[in-house]
Annexin (Papaver atlanticum), 626 residues
Amino acid sequence: MATIVVHEPVPSPMEDAEAVMNAVKGWGTNEKGLLEVLAHRTAAQRQAIRHAYEEHYHEDLIKRLESELSGHLEKAMYRWMLEPLDCDAVLANVALKKHSPDYPVIIELACVKDPEEFLAVKRAYQWRYKHSLEEDVASHSTGDLRKLLFAIASTFKYNGCEIDAHLAKAESHILHELIENKAYNDDEFIRIFATRSNAQLNATFNIFKDDYGISIAKSLLEEPATEYLSALRTVIHCITDPIKYFVKVLRDAIHQHGTDEDTLTRIIVTHAERDLRLIKEKYYERDNITLETAVVRETSGDYETFLLALLGN
Amino acid sequence: MATIVVHEPVPSPMEDAEAVMNAVKGWGTNEKGLLEVLAHRTAAQRQAIRHAYEEHYHEDLIKRLESELSGHLEKAMYRWMLEPLDCDAVLANVALKKHSPDYPVIIELACVKDPEEFLAVKRAYQWRYKHSLEEDVASHSTGDLRKLLFAIASTFKYNGCEIDAHLAKAESHILHELIENKAYNDDEFIRIFATRSNAQLNATFNIFKDDYGISIAKSLLEEPATEYLSALRTVIHCITDPIKYFVKVLRDAIHQHGTDEDTLTRIIVTHAERDLRLIKEKYYERDNITLETAVVRETSGDYETFLLALLGN
């Protein structure tokens, strides 16, 4: 379900490192030459190029790229060249350190990735920042939102497919009672959302819809929408249909006044080798234009070329 | 720092399995014969015996031992024969399912074990019970205690030795302010206790003592002592001096009216191959009698023999 195109035969890491050096050496940078190599290599191949480049030229390729490129292209290339778990760690840190933290990034990591993979991101986070992701989540949020984010970011969820139907019934009833009473910040809400496995929560949400005739996400559409309620709904969307959720994030990034390039880059870079093909299909179904067309409309230059290459063009 | 004694040369797992079979077959059980083998083998050797026994006799050795033994000896042997991570998982589950849950067991796992080891226990828990430890912690506690237990049981803490002295100063000040105002259940309390690394917390607690002339544990000695406050103090003791903490747990188990055999078994079985030697030394320093003497006074029969063997006799 990946979208990137790797042409065979693939040159050796050293040949690629030389091609990269040819693109960056001297005055000016040959961005096209860079993209021809780096946008068409898998994560493992990119890491091999980094190592070959550093061994041969005694400089850090990522630092060199940062000094050669600028703007959205520089940011996108930086993320693309990081080892994927390290990239997720950087994205989480950037999201938390923003003046107005970008909490959905944390929710995506915690609720879409499987628990072992999320754990690997936490290890990468600790390796890079010398403290835990949980510490930063707790330090950069407050109140109910902190309770929710901290709980979902810290739990090591069960990943099995076993479901306790009796429990799902009981907990969908608890959730319905709490929603009826607008007790959204009740600890039970957070307990259920943060600790139950995704399979169990999907069962609970299905029973909720069957019994009460409305999806739990819709029943949380309260006015005025608080950041906390919006985070609860993000959790639900990430658990019930991650592909649809990412389509929504892309649409929001593209359609908002002034494209949100950071989000556009984040989704495309982190999904290009995973499920971006599925996201593209769903995007077209939803918007009647391809994601590529949307990207061409909203971006330009080498940044546009890079995103299109990651999208499989 | 282990206490168990393994005599060389060690018989093969199959020879040991035969000796075990000789001790259990026919009418009656030869407990002495069982203990001569099983109390003097490492965890890896015991697992090898289990496998050899099952392969050769087509029955589960643990189930056979359960049917042959009874009372405290049966419980102790059951725990001893489990793979250590699995044993921790069982102990956590037993602690949570009690009518009045034995929360210190959870705090010990979360605060004394290093984060990777605690994680391995969580995996063993999920493997055995098909749901997460966090779910059970959250379901079997309420109120402030739940907030604390859930937070410490879920966080994947940083295990490095780097300390942020500035942060330690700031957070010891926050803790002091909260204690002055008796705001023990403030979220900041739980945030700091549950997310900071043990090294960082030790720095914070040291600064607290330097600046305010009282240890943080003593400053939480409030009357009437609630279960929550007592849990907070257990967290502090487990982080600052686990050996001293386990000595206290053993002393409480031994000195209380009617020995608490479950706790005595738990500490001896789970530490015999780790740090029981240090615990014994500290116990003697504190009580002026050896732990062995205390065990002889409070227990009897084959259960006594078993505990003494694990203590290195």
